[in-house]
Amino acid sequence: MSGAPGPSDRWDLAGRRLYLCTPDRADLQSFVAACIAGGVDVVQLREKHLPDEPLAERARLVQRVCADRNVPFILNDNPELAAAIDADGVHVGQDDASPARAREVMGDGAIIGLSTHSPGQLDAATGTGATGSGPRRGGSPAPSPAGAAPAPVDYISAGPVVATPTKPGRPGTGLGYVSLAVGRAPWPVWVTGGVDPTTVVAMIAAGATHFVAVRWLTESADPGANARALRHAIDRGLDRWPDQGPGPGGD
After folding, report:
1. Of the four listed, 35, 39, 176, 177, which is most buried by Cβ atoms within 10 Å?
2. pTM of the prediction?
3. In which band, very low, low, confident or very high, does the pLDDT at 139 lie, cut at 50, 70 and 90?
């Protein structure tokens, strides 16, 4: 295996805390800039309704904002388009291109993220059928059985913790799945679903250290202020749980 740093090391994904997932919007450039100023340190554009050409134009706009602020930019679902615009990474869901395909298209230097919503999907991603749950307290993830290889990803998301309009029809996983994912995954685990300054307290207690915000930021009249409030709550919560920092798997 090469000793060269991977994308997680180069971007310090394990040290990043607040991930914005946003659709396109009229004020996209200023909105993303305000969120980053407030403490967002990863940005994903998740837009399901634009053809590739206008989507590429909007993605490049976000990419420029992120590059100027040393924040990784991730495009949702579309590895080919992400590679074409030289995005920092792509995030794929369970029904999208496989992580292996995304890695093939994007190359070794890209960030590849994968959504997970259940223990079975977690097992498939990690290549392990191990049992057990609970936030890791410095322990190593369970080993994979012989012949099973983890997915070629740099992080996973776990959730939604509660059902949200962003994912209509998908039930909430509950905090137990957060604990399970954090305990097993050898990568940073980003928690989704209902993330706001109040809910992160219980999420942190369940083992979470990385958080994906959607409506708390996208529906705010002052996204910069909301980002600051959320980032403050995350940082304050993690200060109260000092053993929730990155373990051997990066989370």
Report:
1. 35
2. 0.87
3. very low
